[in-house]
Amino acid sequence: MIATRTVSDDEADIRLDRWFRRHFPGVPQSAIQKLCRTGQLRVDGKRAEAATRLVSGQAVRIPPLPTVPVAKPVPQTNPAATREIEAMIIYQDDHLIVLNKPYGLPVQGGPGISRHVDGMLEGFRNEGGDRPRLVHRLDRDTTGALLIARTPGVAAKLAAAFRGRDMDKTYWAVVAGRPVPVEGEIDLPLKRIGGAHGGGERGERTAPAERDDEDAARAITEYRTLDHAARKLAWLELKPHTGRTHQLRVHCVAIRAPILGDVKYARPDQNNAFAATVAGLSEKMHLHARSLVFPHPAGGTMRVEAELPPHMAETFRTLGFSAPPAHAPRREGR
To answer: Which member of 10, 17, 130, 139 is catalytic?
Structure first.
């Protein structure tokens, strides 16, 4: 039986094949491509490719399907996990959620990881059955502002903002040493190295690379020293202009100012100075996603700030760093 479905506002700019899988998860990608190739799957009455980007209001012709979609059982909600996420919420509306992620909580699952943010979002499905989706990642030991989309369409728009220059991210870090110069730009290519025996997550690490290395990706970080303590510790503001894995951690090492508590990346020649500075301070990593400024999917600009985690707040008090309180979330220019 042939049917027609209309693309909703939230589904705008999604690829046809991805839109189709969301509505008919039992149909494999190969079958979707065949339906497009043979002209059975059409948009506004015209043939369309699987990669065609949809526009709100378009009519998608659904032909008789080659397989019967099998609905996946919806996982049961864990009330305790839902309450835990609720306690992290800085801001939420019908489009998105912003959390202040605590130290030590992974964002996604992996080998040996059963408790993570992604797995704790089941209790936030909307009336249409959409489950919130992660838009970006923070390391397990990095704290702060984590953006989550409530629907697939919003996720696509926010992910595009992250890929472009529309997402302004600001991090705070306490580092061992005081960078010279005290502010500047780090333009240092990075690459992933290692394997099964390389150590770290999945046996991989991030390392500086030569500019002509075919495996290298350009990585740029703007930094500024906000305060310092006897040249042994400093409070840095970090603004990554690219989004490489562990970019801030490796770039801080490159300017001889490893992030406090980041024993994974501190170089051997920095270890003595590094160890001397941490006496009496928390051994947890001191890297915090302080703020996000981004285009809200419904219009205007959204600004959110995350308060420091307890261990960094205590370090700030000990060192006499005076951090302003986080501003209330605000949406401007609607």
So the answer is: 139
